[in-house]
Amino acid sequence: MELVITAKVKLYPDFVQKAQLIETLKAVKAGLNHASRVAYDNGFITSFKKLQKMTYSDLRQQYGLKSQMACNVCSVVAGSYASMKSNGEKTLAVYKTPKFQYSYGRDYSFTKNGMLSIGTLDKRIKLPFEIKGMKQYFDGSWNFGTATLIYKKDKFFLHIAVKKETPILEDNSVRNIVGIDFGMNFLAVSYDSAGKTNFFEGRHIKDKRAKFTKTRKSLQQTKTASSRRRLKKLGNRENRWMTDINHKVSKALVSGSIEGTLFVIEDLTGIRSQTEKVQRKDRYYSVSWAFYQLRQMLEYKALRSGSKVVVVDPKYTSQTCPKCGHTEKANRNKNTHTFTCKTCAYTSNDDRIGAMNLQRKGIEYIAEVMLSV
Fold first, then answer.
1. CA geometry: angle at 265 spanning 259 and 267, to 5°?
2. What is the structure's pLDDT at 63?
3. Alpha-carbon distance 361 to 367, whole Å?
4. Minimal CB count within 10 Å: which of 34, 50, 266, 313?
């Protein structure tokens, strides 16, 4: 299986190079919006070849884009409209910030003396770069793919898609099974084959989300240009914070388990339609936390470490006794976050019970696979 990771590289252009990069991004932005208008006015074009045929000359002559740049613009716009069409959208795509993609070898490459060679409207330029925290992707075992040039807060970054073929863990090679329950009081609770439980505290996260929500409501009520700018910055800050939390939790889950681990998680794709089962005060948190992002991070980190993730139906995982199997809604007390089996009286934290039952489903999954062989 091909594993794809985004390696973020910081660029250090000099004064002249910075001007060249900014000029290139401005031209690309104008080109994107021109191609977008053509695609929209001509029946929502989603075909790269058709859009390229209609806009290539203008992109080259009117906007000064080089051949590969013009092709990349058409690819981005056609992809945007294809995605919008699949989602039932029929609006004009407007690019407020340039989305400029480079192809490895054609538009960017790394020199022998440790510099980055990258294309601009004028010519290719060579500039120093920093790979702090990303060194493992530059050890020669990863292949470089498409890269995106980012200009943010007067700084330049190159987000590079790095690829590597990684073997998938075979079911008959599983050495450990870990059930992971995602929730609100604990962001994650894990239970492994050795009977070890790990809790990832979530209360402080709920408190911080509450502060974000309070500030957001205040800014929304103000309705000024300044409040809207602050609202956008607040949203970006909250998203960065959520991403960082998810990175740390997924990293801890994978690094805390041995190679050959099967991580069993619940399918939370329908969480946004489950608000009627969540207390009103917790609804915003339960439907807005990036659980799918957390799942994706867990999946690629598990794959990278020689493990894998399976997703199962979470039905009754919080109501079933992991000791005797008795299932009853009254087993769980949501107010005290405890589980007490009405048959055998087994008692534990309700989130831990969920993780235990997910771990059991992992055992059943492996057993079914072995029987079918």
1. 145
2. 94
3. 10
4. 313
The last residue of a domain, from among 131, 147, 165: 165
Query: Would you list the DSSP string of 113-143?
Result: TS-EEE--SS--EEE-EE-TT-GGGGSSSSE
- The parent domain of residue 176 ranges over 171-372
**Residues β-bridged to residue 101:** 148
Compute the distance between CA of residue 159 and CA of residue 146 in angstroms, rounded to an integer.
9
Q: Are strands 100-102 and 2-11 parallel, antiparallel or unpaired?
A: unpaired
CB burial readout 135-146, b (16+ within 10 A) else e: eebeeeebebee
Per-residue CA distances from 343 to 47, 320, 337 (Å): 62, 11, 19
d(CA 288, CA 285): 5
Q: Cβ(345)–Cβ(338) under 8 Å? A: no
**Locus of tokens 């884009």:** 65
Residue 27, amino acid = A
DSSP string, 189-252: EEE-TT--EEEEE-HHHHHHHHHHHHHHHHHHHH-SHHHHHHHHHHHHHHHHHHHHHHHHHHHH
Q: Specify the pTM.
A: 0.77
Strand, helix or coil for residue 331: helix
d(CA 211, CA 237) in angstroms, rounded, equals: 13
Q: Percentage of the chain with pLDDT > 70?
A: 94
Report the pLDDT value the prediction gives residue 352, as an integer from 0 to 100.
96
Residue 76's nearest CA partner among 97, 60, 57 is: 97
User: CA 350 to CA 189: how far, in whole Å?
Assistant: 10
User: Quick one: pLDDT at residue 269?
Assistant: 67
Give the residue ranges of DSSP H helices in 256-323: 283-288, 291-304
Do 147 and 250 belong together in one domain?
no
Residue 99 and residue 47 share a domain: yes
Write out residues in the chain with pLDDT < 70, as ranges: 269-289, 373
Residues in a beta bridge with 182: 188
- Which amino acid would we find at residue 209? R
Q: Measure Cα distances from 126 to 20, 119, 291 in Å.
A: 12, 9, 40
171 Cβ neighbours under 8 A, 6+ residues apart: 262, 365, 366, 369, 370
